[in-house]
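Data availability excerpt. The first of two example chains:
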Amino acid sequence: MAVTIDGRKVGHAEIHRIVDGDRVVTTQVLDYHLMRWKTGLPLRTEGRFEESRAGAPLAFTASATSAGQTTTVEGFARTDGTFQVSRDVDGQASVGLLTWPTAALLSEGQRLDIVRHGFAGGTTYTMRTFDALKQEVADIALTVVGDEVVELPSGNETLHHLRQTFVARPQGAAIDIWVDDRGDTRRSVRPMLGKRMELLACDEACAHAPDQDVDILRAAMVGSPRTIPRDMSDAALRYTIEVPRDRRNPFVETGEQEVVAHDYGYQLTIGPPQVRKDDDGPTPGDAAPNPWVQSTAPEIVEAAREVVGRSGNDRDRMARLRRFVSGYIAINDLGVGYASALETFQTRRGDCTEHAVLLAAMGRAIGISTRIVSGLVYMPRYAGASRVFVPHTWVQAWIKDRWVSFDSAIGRFDATHIALAVGDGDPWRFFSSLGALGSITIRKVDLPFRQMPTRPDPFQGMNRPEPYHPPTNVPASGGKP
């Protein structure tokens, strides 16, 4: 299959299904290449799924590679019915047990379910899918649109058009697929950063034809209706943002961001951190290590403790860590892709995502709950564009009774940071949060009539850039500990 974005070929996909006795083995490869300004970003995902002929899961392997870093997940059914699952993130391995989610299907099970429900127009049903790489279950609502003649590179085919949406996000963007009588996908279309990503069945020569460059960074930028000077961004700001009626709310409430729905879309007010009565506070996962935020790695723990020294409160300790990470990542490298905290600590390279995972890990290493925020930030000039909001990532730490933001990539947090999602550092959550960017239009940015909050900000100054003084145990730029 050829992979295109807005009609420009960026890669290829392969799907093979082999029946071996009472087992079916499906292999899938998606290999494509994007640009971030002038830097190439190769992306590759692979999967191997072993199932019974009835679609029962038996074993799986899934991997994702971005800019040289690979995440691999493998699982197989044990005699007691559970799955033993191993996960490796660029050499950092872990093993655990998984109770298979009820009715969750892998590749062959999904194909059989599609065929079983038939292709009569108007048919609707729900399918439970299992994402082996994320280790997550998703309930998918499917609607049979009807039969259509589809133009493919090899010629026209009459196919069955199905539309998929997530049950949990019925107003979210849909994925359209066209399958043959066997339930095999011949075409699919989905939104990607405001563009259209399409997979088209074709012969090998077509699939492996030369690729073209597509700059996803420019595609993900959102224009600002006005220049936002520094003194204005230090205050609370109110945004009037237009979002199509058929799209779900792309914004999240945080201690610093208030979201109010209107007929035209949403009004956001962003300012100093506040206590939210409906905020349950940090979860256990906000304090725990994971494959991307290795907060128990000895070198990260040692560095974090040395940086904070004997600071008396969490506010000061996070401020010290923020200043350290701002100076420690010596090379701003868009080609890294998405590195883990430990890899970032060792290489001292990366962009905002690497800043965020390292700062989050160091906060957790000294007992402060942290989470990673994905969203947008205003830039007067960036990658040849002026007055734009660009995709960005930063950290929130739970301090006293509220979430407080720290941005080590820019060196300061202000009211031009628009939050779209919060998570644990998993890169796929980050990329999925950016899916709404093509539907966002910022119509107005101004100061609220009544500045928020009315009381002084207790955290004023904690994100102010200060001189960087490295601890003694960290590696030199580009080296290893």
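And the second chain:
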Amino acid sequence: MIKKCFLCGGKTTKKLITAENWWGSDLTLIENVPSWVCDNCGEQYFEPEVCEELDRLRKTPPANKKLIQIPVYNFPKTGHPY
């Protein structure tokens, strides 16, 4: 159990989150992942067994459960040299 955020020191709460995973240019979402989430900064932490299952899913993803469409935007040019 992770009770305190390592980044900001805030309190964490156990929540089910949607984790994202990229396969090259393909985005995969894994829903209902148990996580400890900082109430202050939003940083997410996982128990060791959850990390193991996420690693397994990332190596051999199951068949698609559902497909969604998401909009993709380009960030406007700001004059920065990068």
